[in-house]
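Help needed: design a sequence for this.
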């Protein structure tokens, strides 16, 4: 992982929250029957954009 893209004050250990987000979201979806993968992809990309905007240095956004 290229940690140089992160803002200097970001604790890289917190990046493991991405795994937690993915696991929690997949657990939630597993009980809902058919999965709309387009909607799932859109929502996950929105979440990742939010994290990028807060954790990445301005030049990498």
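Sure. Designed sequence:
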């Amino acid at each position: 992982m290229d940690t140089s893209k992160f803002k200097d004050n970001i604790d890289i250990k917190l990046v493991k929250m991405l795994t937690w987000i993915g696991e929690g979201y997949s657990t939630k979806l597993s009980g809902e029957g058919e999965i709309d993968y387009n909607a799932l992809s859109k929502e996950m990309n929105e979440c990742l954009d939010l994290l990028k905007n807060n954790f990445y240095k301005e030049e990498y956004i």
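The first helix runs from residue 17 to 30.
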